[in-house]
Amino acid sequence: MIKAIIFDLDGVIIESAGIKTEAFRALFSGYPDKLPQIMAHHEKNAGISRYVKFRYFYEKILGLELTPEREKELGEEFSRIVLDKILKAPLVDGVMKFLKNNAKRYLLYIASGTPEEELQYILKQRGLETFFRVAYGTPLTKTEITRRILAENNIAAGEAVFIGDAESDLIAARETGVTFVARTDMSDNTLKDCEWRIRDFTGFEAVLAKIEKTVPAST
Fold first, then answer.
1. pLDDT tens-digit readout, 158-203
2. Which of 4, 24, 58, 199 could form a cystine bridge with 107, CB 3.0-4.6 A?
3. What is the sign of the dihedral through the CA atoms of 173, 174, 178 and 182?
4. How far apart are CA 181 and CA 192, in angstroms?
5. Predicted local distance difference test score (pLDDT) of residue 43
6. How far is Cα 179 from Cα 163, in angstroms, rounded to an integer?
7. pTM value?
8. CA 143 to CA 154: how far, in whole Å?
C-alpha cells in the first residue's frame, strides 16, 4: 500500500523547469565559449542545487575562484530572474485536482532543489502549501530528504513513490529504494526507460493503483 508521495517541484508541479534553464543561460552569457559546456552540465544535473552548480561552473569550467560574496550575488540574481516567472507559470495538467482529491489519502511531500526559503514562498504564493506535510528544499539533497521522510513516518521504501522529471530525482529514488514515477514529454530521452511514466497528472491515480499491485508494502 502506498502511504507517501514525494514530488519534485519544477517540471512536476509547476511548468518551470525551462525557466531555470534560461536563468543559467542568462547568468553565464558573458562566457560564450564556455556556455555550451555550462548548459550541458546544468541539463545533465537538473534538480541539483543552483549553488552546487555555481561552484562547479567556476571551479571546473571557468577555472575561477567563487568567493562567498560572488556566490551570494549569483544566488540573488538567479532568484530575481526566475521568481516572478515561476509565480506566473502554469501548473502541470491535473496536478491541482490530484492534490485536492488525495491530500488526506496520502502523506504528500516536496523534495526540491530550490532553496528552502524560496520554496516556501513559491508554495504560499501559489496556494499550494496546505497540501503538503512538509516541503523540503536545499541545502538537503533529495536523497537525504527522502530518507528523512521514510524515517520520520516509519514508512518502508515500498510504501513511498517519488515523482520527478530529472535524473537527480531518479537517483534519489534508487538510493532510497522507493518507486520512481517519471514525468516526461515526447522530447525527453533522459527518463524514457523508466518503468512508470506519466505525461501529466490526469492519469496518475490509475498509475498509483497499478504500482500498488506490483510493489510490496514493506521491504
1. 999 999 999 999 999 999 999 999 998 755 667 888 899 999 999 8
2. 4
3. positive
4. 11
5. 87
6. 8
7. 0.89
8. 16
Instruction: Write the burial class of residue 195 (CB in 10 Å: 0-12 exposed, 13-18 middle, 19+ buried).
Output: exposed
Nearest to 2 by CA among 159, 177, 178: 159
Spatial CB neighbours of 54, under 8 Å, sequence gap ≥ 6? 66, 71, 74, 75
Q: Where are the domains of the chain?
A: 4-15+91-214, 17-88
Residues 173 and 164: their CA atoms lie apart, in Å, by 9
Q: Which CATH architecture has domain 4-15+91-214?
A: 3-Layer(aba) Sandwich (3.40)
- Scanning the chain, the segments in alpha helix (DSSP H) are 17-27, 35-44, 50-56, 68-88, 95-102, 116-125, 142-152, 167-176, 204-214
Cα 100 → chain centroid: 20
Strand partners, 213: none
Tell me the C-alpha distance between 163 and 109, whole Å.
Answer: 10
Q: How many residues does the chain have?
A: 219
Nearest CA to 159 out of 147, 172, 148, 150 is that of 150
